[in-house]
């Protein structure tokens, strides 16, 4: 293999090592198990990725805060589904009067819990995590 080929292979290996992989998905039996403060990224189609903070209460109510551009703060609720995932909905806080909803999947491993929330329209995905005790 040429020096250039080795350099390209090492670069690709470095990129793969930097990529964050999700721990395995888990079923949730009680919504209160998700209580806590999570932080991560909110990704929208045709928008810049931005930081997000999700504070979940034991009853499934939550507060979501997203940074600029187009930052917002809103309240919502999570409801457990029979398959161990959860549905969520919240009022869009930019005065458009929309109620946004989607499905959430929980991943656990490596000492952390990761929530991946995907809007029903597929245009927005939020991945947030927190360390486990």
Observed structural traits:
eight-stranded antiparallel barrel, 133 residues, 9 strands, Lipocalin, mainly beta, 12% helix
How would the blueprint of this fold be written?
Blueprint: H1 3-18, E1 25-26, E2 36-44, E3 50-56, E4 61-66, E5 72-80, E6 86-91, E7 99-109, E8 112-119, E9 124-131
Antiparallel strand pairs: 1-7, 2-3, 2-9, 3-4, 4-5, 5-6, 6-7, 7-8, 8-9
Tally of domains: 1
Distance linking N and C termini: 47 Å
Classify the fold: give the CATH topology: Lipocalin
* Strands ordered across the widest β-sheet: 2-3-4-5-6-7-8-9
CATH architecture label name: Beta Barrel
Mean pLDDT: 84
Percent in helix: 10-25%
Percent of residues in beta strands: over 45%
Main CATH class = Mainly Beta
As a whole number of angstroms, the C-alpha radius of gyration is 17 Å
The arrangement of helices and strands along the chain is HEEEEEEEEE
Number of helical stretches of at least 4 residues: 1
């Amino acid at each position: 293999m040429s020096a250039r080929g080795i350099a390209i292979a090492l670069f690709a290996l470095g990129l793969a090592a930097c990529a964050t992989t999700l721990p395995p998905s888990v079923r949730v039996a009680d919504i209160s198990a998700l209580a806590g403060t999570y932080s991560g990224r909110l990704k929208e189609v045709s928008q810049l990725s931005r930081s997000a903070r999700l504070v979940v209460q034991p009853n499934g109510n939550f507060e979501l805060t997203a940074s600029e551009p187009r930052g917002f703060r809103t309240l919502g609720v999570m409801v457990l589904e029979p398959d161990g995932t959860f549905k969520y909905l919240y009022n869009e806080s930019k005065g458009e009067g929309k109620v946004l909803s989607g499905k959430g999947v929980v991943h656990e491993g490596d000492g952390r819990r990761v929530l991946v929330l995907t809007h029903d329209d597929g245009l927005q995905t939020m991945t947030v995590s927190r360390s486990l005790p």
